[in-house]
Amino acid sequence: MLYIEKEGLPNDINSKIIELSKSEKWKSISEDDTTAIRNAFDNDFPKNEAKEILLHEQHGICAYCMRRIRMDNHSRVEHLVPLSKNKDMAIDYNNMLGVCDGGEKVTGNQGHILCCDAHKKETEIMISPLNKVQMNKIAYDSEGKIYTKPKDEDMERDINEVLLLNGIQKKDGTVRDTSTELLKGRKDAYDRARKMMVALNIKGKCTSATLKKIMDELYNREERDEFVGVQLYYLKALQFVDSQRYVVSDLGITVVIIEHYRTLLRAIGYKVFDK
To answer: What is the mean pLDDT of residues 156-179?
Structure first.
């Protein structure tokens, strides 16, 4: 999950939304008539145009899970505040995200475990890809699990119970991945970043400047890699560590490293001492 910065709508599309909001048809719909609100959103709101802009803002990845989304029936426009909970926000572009189908169209033996909007449905959540402070708390481990650091119980409730981004943990402690294999996808992304950094470190090129260049390239792509947030998280952690590189690897001085950086350091061959 990555922070999404809204770009705003072109004037022609914005004008269509304003026209809808002022129409007698829209005004006549009661706040609790979800069916009528949904019908107006589906048929009178410029949904396809809005969806195209959402995909551009999000660089072609789902706002929740970071899987690839395109202008097809495997993606949809999601309301952060559910359409059934707030009539006005049902046609407010700033309340909309581009998301995947959550595995609804996936076939196979994964047990059809849905995620993202497909599992969230009309549940209200407090986590938001539009909240930069929250997104700075997002972290990933080497097994592909998404969590928060420092721990935020409300965010993790939404991640694990509503959006189901970590699959389902069974009573025996094992985990069943989602139908869209989110855990596997994030683990693979983590492994790719780690292997790339191992190769750079061997060549003596694992520097802050190199890491920044790679991060900028990944972040600014018109169509970002799937699960790119995992790679960016890993690289950002290493960038933080680079300033401590001589202390850790050359002088042998014990350095207290923020806890969630320890695994990353060890993965690329640094010797890290516990406090």
So the answer is: 93
Return d(Cα 190, Cα 156) in angstroms, integer.
Answer: 20
Q: Residue type at 162?
A: V
ω into 150 cis (within 30 of 0):
yes
Residue 253 has pLDDT above 70, yes or no: no
Q: Residue 249's pLDDT is what?
A: 38
Of the candidates 230, 179, 225, the one whose C-alpha atom is nearest the C-alpha of residue 58 is 225
Q: Is the pTM of this model over 0.70?
A: yes
What does the H/E/C string look like for 35-47?
A: HHHHHHHHHCCCH
Q: Helix, strand, or coil here: 146? A: strand
Helix 208-220 to helix 228-242 angle (10° resolution) is 160
Decide: 218 and 231 in contact? Cβ < 8 Å: yes
pLDDT on residue 2: 97
Say how far apart CA 153 and CA 131 lie, in whole Å: 16
Instruction: Measure CA of the first residue to CA of the last residue in the chain; give whole Å.
Output: 31
Q: Are 267 and 192 in contact (CB under 8 A)?
A: no
pLDDT value for 138 = 97
Rounded CA separation 77/54 (Å):
8
Backbone angles phi, psi at 123, to 5 degrees: -75, 135
Residues belonging to the chain: 275
| Alpha-carbon gap, residue 136 to 149, rounded angstroms | 9
For 111-125, what is the mean pLDDT?
92
